[in-house]
Amino acid sequence: MSEKILKALLQLFAIIVKVDGSSSAGTSGSVAVSRFLRQQFTLEQAMAHMAAFESFVLAFHSSGGASQKGRKRTSLNSVKVLKICAQVNEELTQRQKFVVLVHLLELIHAGGEVGDQEQEFVSTVAESFNIASSEFQRCQAFVLAGDERQDMADILYIDAANCADSSNSRHLHAHGLEGEMRVLNVPSVGLYLMRYQGNDRVLLNGQSVIRDQAYVLSNGASLRPPQGQPIYYSDILSSFLNGEGRDRLVFKADSIEFEFPNGRV
Questions:
Q1: Burial of 160 from C-beta contacts in 10 A (0-12 / 13-18 / 19+)
Q2: In this structure, are residues 77 and 56 in contact, taking their beta carbons and an 8 Å threshold?
Q3: 184 phi/psi in degrees, rounded to 5
Q4: In angstroms, rounded to a whole number, what is the distance separating the alpha carbons of residues 117 and 16?
Q5: pTM (2 decimals)?
Q6: In angstroms, how far is the first alpha carbon of the chain from the final one?
Q7: Could you say which DSSP state residue 45 is in?
Q8: So what's the pLDDT on residue 25?
Q9: How far apart are CA 243 and CA 170, in angstroms?
């Protein structure tokens, strides 16, 4: 991730994190940003980027949200969102934009109830990124999902059950797993996002998975529950490919032989 794009993302975070002017939202949002930075960088680098983020927060939200000046600043920040999105559009792939959107959704929901302005901002970002409304809603539902299961074909549930209890969603068995892992498939960009709801120590590529946090699954990724066999990226991919009505390809070699120069067949 380039410094230019990171700066743009921190600015978006700073605009969204305290858009309603509440200190509680600001506190929880800062925790979410700090967690995101620690995932991406070393501790020293994360601290430096966190300082930059805090300076952006002060710059964007120095006036009171309830005052006329505060409302004017909110309007100016909306224009800044569009400018930053235009910059991001030039340098990020569509798949990366989805990842940014999911992190923004996690951020605005970190404080609990989401204000109208926060929702408007993140909707503007999605629209500016040319993300379809239906895909934006699916990403938001994935971030917000609680205990209730969604019986959708783009969702994979990984748990200790031996078989699926729904007709449309996908399922993988993970022996002895407490809770469940959920994987969202965004087929338009080939993106697979995973969240874990449970208290076991689950590893993604050797690193501990934090509960209720979205992770991008890339080619070669492996999920390791405390018990049983690891779950590989290919297993997840196959779960979504199965049952799509695709023609089966069979390569068959019949009655073929070759004779080497020495006469050996």
A1: middle
A2: no
A3: -100, 130
A4: 9
A5: 0.75
A6: 56
A7: H
A8: 43
A9: 10
CA-closest candidate to residue 99, choices 152, 38, 36 = 36
Q: Which two tokens stand for residue 20?
A: 């309603």
What is d(CA 72, CA 63) in angstroms, rounded to the nearest whole number? 10
Name the strand (E) or helix (H) holding 170: strand 170-173
What are the CA-CA distances from residue 219 to residues 7, 10, 47, 93, 188 (Å)?
28, 27, 30, 17, 16
Q: Cα(180)–Cα(194) distance, rounded to whole angstroms?
A: 10
- What would the two tokens of residue 118 be? 């926060």
pLDDT along the chain (265 residues), means of 10: 74 71 52 76 89 86 52 60 85 88 81 72 89 93 81 91 84 92 93 92 91 88 91 92 65 89 91
pLDDT at 84: 84
What is the predicted pLDDT for the residue at 211? 85
Q: φ, ψ for residue 60 (rounded to 5)?
A: -85, -25
- In angstroms, the CA 219 to CA 45 distance is 27
